[in-house]
Structures are given as structure tokens and as C-alpha cells.
Amino acid sequence: xxxxxxxxxxxxxxxLVVLLHPVGLDGTFWGGLPARLVQAGRxxxxxxxxxxxxxxxxxxxxPIEAYADDVAAAITEAGGPAAVVGLSFGGMIAQxxxxxHPSLVSALVPCGCGGDFPEAVRPVLRERGxxxxxxxxxxxxDATIERWFTPDFHADPAVERVKRALLAxxxxxxxxxxHAIAGLSATPSLGGVTAPTLVIAGERDAATPPSVTESTIxxxxxxxxxxxxxxxPHMMQIEAGDAYADAVCGFLRARxx
Length: 257
Hints:
By secondary structure, this protein is of the alpha/beta class. The chain has one domain: Rossmann fold, CATH 3.40.50.1820. 42% of the residues lie in helices and 14% in strands. The protein is globular, with a radius of gyration of 16 Å.
């Protein structure tokens, strides 16, 4: 476990659902999903991951297992187990959580992420953190927005809010997150995951193509469902929010009490 205590926003009543956000953002970047879950009779806990939002600062090196242990402590404190929905970095942490703390995960919904990386890709991922260390968060904004949203959506006010959040992000926390991502290797252990699982990919995800999500997660977990959201990019919860909420809520309604 961990001594680090994550900040979280809890709302609603019913079975617990924990939301884990992408790197560089925080628990306020979930679009309409939290409200939909509350309306569906769920208790929702939106966590700020370590080094993000109002949670304690961290610095590299910090393995992804430490982030998963942070979440495990938060779920335990909240009276889990929980259905865990994670997007991008959050989806990677959700996988590691299900591997390390299976009794705390009643259902698993990893989105817009893979479960492993080719060795040649790992230095590229670490470099995204190092770029910010050298040039500040301004140095990563343009490339990040290109990976996260479709070109036609760049003028939307939601993208400007994302940019402001990234610019306000602690560089050490951003770099720690990317170094943790670069160390992810969950796929070999996902065969042991028994929680009901829905794996979600965005059709137009430039950061993690659906083929990667399917091959490294969906095929590795026995009985996992896999869905691709038409037209959705990496930040599917923002740009394709209704379809994303429909997929998550429909799965939890059908599979998880």
C-alpha cells in the first residue's frame, strides 16, 4: 500500500465507481459521465492521481505500481470494492490495480490505452516528460493536443480548458507520469484478471489506435468485451462524451450490481 492520500470528489449513492483520469488532467475532466453514473444509482469517486490536481506532488522515478497502490488505498478508504474506469494513464493504472489488488476491483473499464509497449517506444514516452523538464509545459502543449483531439475539434472551448490545465500542471508530476507510463507491462499478467471487463477504444485515437487496445488488453483478459466508439479520439470522454457515457453506463448496468 502507500502513505500518499489522494484527493477525491465523491457524489451519489449506490455501488462504488472510481474514475481515473489521463496524465496532465485531474478528476474534473470527465464530461457528463459522473452525472450519468449518479443518475444511474452509483456512488462516484473522481480521484486526482498523484502529482495531479489537488493530490500530493510527486517526482520521478515513481513506478506505475505506486500509482495503483495509491488508488487501492483510496478505494479501501471509500469502502470498496469499486468498478474502476480509467482513461489513458488512468486506464493503465486501472489494469495494474486489477492485477495487484483484485479484491478491490468489481469491474474494470480501461479506455484509450494499451497494456504494454515495444521496447523501442519506451524512450519516446519518457521523452514526453523530459521535454517539459527542459522547456516547461508550454513545450508539450501542441503535440499533446494533436494526439488527444481531432483537428475539427481544436476550436472547441473544451480544448482551451484542457490547454489551461496542462499549462498549470506541475512539470515534475507530468514527467513522473510519463516515466511511469514508459514502464508499463501489464499484458503478460492480464490473463489472471477475473473482474467483468469492458475495453473501450476511440476509432480516431491517434495516441492509442484501437488495434493496440484490442491486442494488448481485450484479447489478454478472458471474457473481456471490446468496443470502438465511432469517430472518437483519445480524449473520448470530452469530444465523444455522450457515446462514451452510454458505453460505460450500459456496461455497468448490465454487468455490475
